[in-house]
Design brief:
It is built from six helices and four strands; from the N terminus they run E-H-E-H-E-E-H-H-H-H. The chain is α+β, with helices and mostly antiparallel strands. Strands 2-1-3-4 form a four-stranded antiparallel beta sheet. The relative contact order is 0.13.
């Protein structure tokens, strides 16, 4: 499902590199383990260390290495951090999840668009709260098409504050 991918950081993001056709994807086995434990986390750390050593020896500090999981790019550091924090493979399909949240927040026909945007922004912020910054930015970029308000300063609202009179 997810192989190792590499792109030059001059492209900015994985998506920009992909759009330019500038992605190298490994031909090796997939990274996704059947389960995550301390041994798997060490294994991924070893992979990162080996790749770092090879890149350093080649004088290449301009490459970003990671894996695409459900259309979202995770650097090796982000995967390792996620493993250590949550102890599971990141299996949420974020492109589908942002659409699902949009449908949930849009269910009330009486809700104004401004209220929908605040509720949707709040739901996406809660979804991405624990994600590594790079992954969070990609998920938010997906959510913008569905009404996510990037200018909000962490608006956290409750169902009680969404009552319509």
């Amino acid at each position: 499902m997810s192989k190792l991918s590499v792109y030059r950081d001059e492209h900015g993001t994985y998506k920009e590199a992909f759009d330019c056709g500038a992605i190298y994807s490994s031909q090796c086995d997939e990274l996704e383990p059947e389960f995550v434990d301390a041994g798997r986390t060490l294994y991924l750390g070893d992979i990162k260390s080996i790749i770092g050593t090879v890149l350093e020896a080649a004088g290449r500090d301009d490459l970003v290495v990671g894996s695409v999981i459900h259309e979202v790019f995770w650097t090796l550091d982000e995967l390792i951090t996620h493993f250590n924090k949550i102890n599971e493979w990141p299996d949420v399909n974020y492109p589908e999840k942002v659409v699902e949240l949009a449908k949930i927040e849009c269910k009330n026909d009486e809700v104004s668009y401004d209220l929908y945007k605040r509720r949707y922004t709040n739901a996406v912020d809660q979804l991405t709260n624990e994600l590594p910054l790079g992954v969070k930015q990609q998920v938010i970029a997906l959510a913008v098409d569905h009404g996510y308000n990037e200018q909000s300063d962490d608006i956290f609202i409750t169902d009680a504050s969404c009552s319509i009179y």
